[in-house]
Structures are given as C-alpha cells and as structure tokens.
Amino acid sequence: MLPFSFCTVLLATYFATSLADVSPREGQVIASCLDRVGGMTYENAERLQRYKQWADNYEEFPCFTNCYLNKLSTLYKENSGFNETAVIEQFGKEVHKVCQRRLSEGRDACDIAYNGFHCLVTMLDDPFVHIDRLPNITTEARTVMKDCLRPYDRSLYNRIKEYSKLPTREPIRCYTKCIVDNLQLLNPINRHWNIASLRHHLNIRFEKGSMKHCHALTPHRKRNACAWVFRELTCFMQSKPK
Ligand SMILES: *[C@@H]1O[C@H](CO)[C@@H](O)[C@H](O)[C@H]1NC(C)=O
Ligand SMILES: *[C@@H]1O[C@H](CO)[C@@H](O)[C@H](O)[C@H]1NC(C)=O
C-alpha cells in the first residue's frame, strides 16, 4: 500500500487550481475506482502514475476515468458527458480546442470519459499549448516562441516549463536568445535592451535600478551571448516592481 499522496500526484496536479484541497478525498476515490482491478496495490498505483503514457484509445484500468470523474469532478457526468464550460475553466480554451472532438468520442460512457480526459491531461503537457496558455504576452511573442522551439529536439520540449521557475542555467540552450533576436528586444548595435518592447511583448516590467544591477551580473557580455541574454532577462523578471 502506498501513501495516497504518491498516487494522487498524477491526477491531482491537473486540478491544482480548482480542487486544490481534495487530496485525502481524492485518494479514497481513486482507491474505490480501482476496486475492480484489485484496489490500490503497489503495481496499480505505479501504473496509474503512468496514466499520461497510456495509449490514446486503450484505458489500462477499464472505466477508471469514468468512475473517477463522476465521483470527483465537475468536468464530466456519466449521463450528460463533458461539461464544456467546466473543461474550458479548468484546462483553458486552447486545450479545449485541441481536444474538443475527443470529448464526445467513444462507444460508451467509459470510452468517452477516457478519450476526453486522457486528451486533456496529455495536452496540458504539450509545449505549444503551454506557450498558448502563457498569460499577458503578445500573439507575435507566442508565434516567435513556437518558431524558436521547433528546431530543437523534441526530447527538450518539456523543459520549457522550467523557465517559469527562473533558473540560473537556461533549460533549453540559446532558446531565449532566439526569442530576443526575433522580437528585437535588444538593439544589435549598441546592445541596449528595448524596454518598451520588453513590456509590450512579454509584459516584463522592472524598476529603473534593475537594469544596472542586472548588467552587473554579466560583466563579460561579449562572451557567450546566449548565456548573458538569458541571465539578464531572468534578472529583469525577478525584479518586478511591487
Ligand atoms: C457546467 O459547468 C459550469 C462551470 O463549472 C457550471 O456553472 C454549470 O452549472 C455546469 N453545467 C451543468 C449542466 O452541470
Ligand atoms: C496580466 O495582466 C493583467 C492586467 O494588466 C493583470 O491583472 C494580471 O495580473 C496579469 N497576469 C500576470 C500573470 O501577469
């Protein structure tokens, strides 16, 4: 028997904003929905953790999703199907758009619940959907972010989520520089940041004093442009005005 927290990580994360405090109850619901396949065994919990890797059309624990959603969520009810308003509220309109067809596809309620929900949780991980969901950036910025990502190996795509933690090392090497160059956030001649563009495209606002402070972090600006561009931009983002 595993602690509930272990096996709930997988599904609970998707409801972090709407059902943030359901964890103990969610653990009970998950256990009861696994009754048909032997309950909350170690193997079942492990398998459930790989939910997102389950095949698109094959639910490894038959009817699990139908049971789970019916008991725990406002997303879906066995007799009425997915509630599109709730889907948009909880997953965003971009994910809804990609999964719309899957929300009603299937032979029966169990099939539909799995097809729809599996698509929703898988799509949340899609880096291009992630970019679409970033708040307060311009359409042009979104396009550039997507175009700059495409040339990279797909195995690196998931690292895009690490950017929001403002790490010291860039998760995808030179990705930021590509964005900065394409949005012309930095003057190529005098290498001054374009404060108006930073604000307009990326909604980055910072105190006047930060510019100097952030420059000071990268005294050797000439070397490795990818590194200092990332470092300074991250620094600006950390010094948002209150
Ligand atoms: C669908 O979800 C919305 C938002 O959560 C809710 O207000 C509405 O009552 C739901 N509709 C049905 C038919 O359950
Ligand atoms: C986006 O912009 C709006 C309006 O300026 C603001 O209220 C909101 O907090 C911003 N969201 C983020 C995540 O910066």
TrEMBL record:
Residues 1-20 form the signal peptide. Keywords: Secreted, Signal. InterPro entries: PBP/GOBP (IPR006170), PBP_GOBP_sf (IPR036728). GO terms for cellular component: extracellular space. One of its GO terms (biological process) is sensory perception of smell. One of its GO terms (molecular function) is odorant binding. Its main location: secreted. Belongs to the PBP/GOBP family. This is Odorant binding protein 7. The lineage of its organism: Eukaryota, Metazoa, Ecdysozoa, Arthropoda, Hexapoda.
